[in-house]
Amino acid sequence: MATTTLRPRSTSMGSSTRAGRRSHPIARWLKYGGPVRFLFILPTLLVFGLFAWWPIVRSLGISLQQTNFVTTRWVGLENFTRVFADPLLGTATVNTIWFAALALVIGFPVPLLLAVAVSEMRRARGIASVLAYMPVILPPVVATLLWKAFYDPSSTGLFNSIFGSVGMDPIPWLNNGDLAMPAIVVQATWASFGTATIIYLASLMSIGPELYEAAEVDGAGFFRRIWHITLPQLRSVILVLVLLQIIGTLQVFAEPFIMTGGGPENRTVTILMLIYRYAFISGDYGRATALSLLLAVALTLVSLIYLRLTKKWSSS
Amino acid sequence: MSLIRTAPEDVSAPIPGPIPEASARRMRRAEEGQGDRSVLSNLDRRDPVKRMLITVFITLVVMSLIVVCAGPMLWLFKAATSTTNETLGDPFSLWPSGLHLENFVNIWTQVEFGKYFLNTVWVMLGSLVLGVSVATTGGYWLAVLKPKGSGFVSALILATLFIPGVISLVSLYLTVIDLPLLGISLIDTFWAVWLPAAANAVNVLIVQRYFASLPGEIFEAARVDGAGPVRVFFSLVLPMSRPILGVVALLTLVGAYKEFLWPLLVLPSPDLQPISVVLPRLASTTEFAPFMAALFISSIVPIAVFLVFQRQFLQAAGNAGALKG
Question: Where in the cell is it found (chain A) (predicted)?
Fold first, then answer.
C-alpha cells in the first residue's frame, strides 16, 4: 500500500523541497526527519541484531572453535567428529525420532477430530473450546510435574489406582524403559493439543456453507461431506501444523528433562538434552554448537522433504 | 461461575432439552447464524434419530473433555488441600480430614514462594513492555514509514522464523554472557530474559501486517496537516491498533510465563528465578502436599486470567494459526 508512506512528497512541500533536491542525500535525510524515523526501527535492529541475527551467524564460528571464555582457538571440524564419536548420539537420535513419531500418531488425529466434533456443537462450542485450551495455558513445567505425580509407580499413584480398580498390577510408568517415552508423549500431547484444536476450529468455521449445501444436494452423507469438503478445505492448515509439530517435537527438551532426566538407561535422552549436557554441564560449547547445527540442518532437510512429499496434495 | 461471557446459556447442561422453547431458540439461532452451517445441516438436526445421536455424541465429547482437561486441575486442588498422607495413600480420597489450607501458608512462608511469584511477574512485565515496544515501533517503521531498506529488514526478521531456534541456543547464551561491543554480562539480570524475548519475529510480523491494513489515507492526511511521524504513531496508529496490541500482549505474557530453559540458564541466582525454574527444584526438596499447593497456585493464576479473557485468548490462538496458514 504505497499511500501509507510518510516520506515527504515534493508536491506538498513547496519551495523548500526544490532546495532539498539539490542538496546531498544525507543532508536531505537529516532535514526531513530521517533520524526521528530511524529511531523507530532502532530498537528492533538492536534487539534482533544482538539476540537473533548475531547468535545465528556466530554459531557457525563457535562450531569450529574451542572456547572456555579465556582463550578461543580454531579446531576445524574436531567438534563435529567428537559429536559423532559420542555413543549416546545414536540413542538420542532414535529417542527423538521415536518421540516425534509417537507425538504425531497421537497428536495429529486428536485435535483434528476434536475440532470437527466441536464445530458441530451449538450450545457447547464455547465451553468445549475453553476446556480444550485450558492445558495449553499451564506452563510446561507445571503440567509436567503434575503428570509426574500421576505417573507415580506405587500402587496408590493416580494412574495405577485407576488401572488397579480394574484389577491391573501397578505399572512403573517412568521407570520402565519401554513405557517412559510413550508416557512423556501422552503428557506432552495433553499439554499441547488445545492449540491445534483451536486453529483447526477457526479454519473449520470459515468454510463456506454453500460447499456443504451443494454436497448435501448431491446426496453426500456425513462422512462423505467430511472427506470431500472438510478435509480438502483444511489441507493448507493441516500441512503447516503437521510440519510445525514435527519441527517442534524434534526439539523436545523440557518434558523428558523434568520427568525422567533422560532415564531409565538413557531411553528418554533427546538430542536437545545432549546439547544441554555438552554446553551447560561440561562447558563444551563448541561441541554443543556443532550438534545444534547438525540438528538445524536435519530439521531443514526434514522440512524440504516434507514440502516435496506434500506438494502434490497441497497444490491439487 | 460463568465461563462464557457472551452467551451465558452455554454454561447450562450441554444436552439440549426436548422442550419446545429450547428447540425454538436453537432454530432461531441456526437461522440467524448464516455462517454457522457446518458438516451437519439443519435438516440433519431436525431428524429425531440423528438429533439423538448427535446429542449423545456431543455429550460424550464434552464429558471426556471435562475429565481430561478440567479433571487434573480439580484433582490438583484436592491434593493441594489434603494432607500428604491422604493423597499418597489414596489419590481419590475426598478430604477425609477436612480442608487443609495450611499447605498454602506453608509453601508461602517456608520456601518464599511469594518471592518467586514476584520474579515471575517481573519477567512477564518486562517482556511485555519491551516486546510490545519493539513490535509496535518496528512494525510502524516497516509497514507505515516504509523507507528504503524496509523490505530487506522485513525479510531478515522473517528469516529468523524459518531458522530453527535450536541453532542459536548456545551462541545466544555466550552472547548474553559477554555482550558484543559493550563487553558486559547480563547473567543474573532480568535483561537476559527480557531482551532476547523482545526479538520475537511473530510479534513484529503480526503488528506489521495489522499496521499495513490500516487506512493509509488517514496518516497521509495527518501528515499534510503537519503531524510528524512521532505524532502519527502515538495519536493515530497506536489507538487504532488496540485489538492487535491485546493479541500481542497476551501472546507475550503467556510466552514469558511458560518459559523454562532460558531463565534456568541465565538466572542461576535463586533470588531472581521465576516459579517455572524453581518448581522442579521444589519437587525434590518440599513435602508433597505443600508442593501440590505450589503447583496449584502456579496453574490457577493463568487459568483464572484465561477464563476472564477467554474470548481474546481463543481469538489470539486462532489468529496465530491464520498467520501460520
Answer: Cell membrane
